[in-house]
Amino acid sequence: MEKLNELIARAEKLLEEISNTEYREELSGKMVSEVKSIHVQGRLLIRNVDKTTLEEYSKLFSRHPNNYYLWNIWKSYIIIEFEKCVGILKAISEVGQEISIDRSLTKIFISHGKFNPAFKNLETFIRALGCLPIYDISEPTEGKTINQHISSLIQKADFYIVLASSETTNDSGKKLPNHNVIIEYDRLIQSKIDRMIVFLEEGCYMPSIVQEVIYVPFTNECMDKAFTKLVAELKIQNLL
Asked: Using CA atoms, how far apart are residues 92 and 96, in angstroms rounded to an integer?
């Protein structure tokens, strides 16, 4: 575990350096090579954990951005993948490698709109709990239509979070979540899913919210109450 914690410390320092780069020239080949080196070392350290976790970790950095990528897209891709890498390593470190061995991770489906700060914080928190966040682009579509793909993710999940952030407005000027979030919420209700919680951004209106569904308010600046409620619900369901 000591080697794993040392690797996490190196990764966090490098992640901060990458986040602070402002020009392509600063994101040197050496820096990117160090990212990949940490990823490989992490895979060696966690090779004995359960298969699902190792597969999730190993498929990171599957794309290879090159000079034809726009600078901001290239940098964003490296940061997002590296944050996932660090998140998985942290989760294993926190629950203990011996606990992770041969353990089937709790899979938490996230219905979301844009990849805003709330989504990033939620995904990182789920990983830190030792659970596996699953959402549309995190899993291969395997040739399915988008509806088939989402249905497949819903079927394999153990718990469901609807992240309702203010992203659009109706004719009356009310702030609403992304349209696909409303559709997925309705799909979960119609499927009689009872292991669900709605994170509702303050000031955001969710049409026809069902009374029995648990929902908690949040802001992009503070999600503490929402995270506390999530942990309580996972424990009640014996998923944590």
From this structure: 6
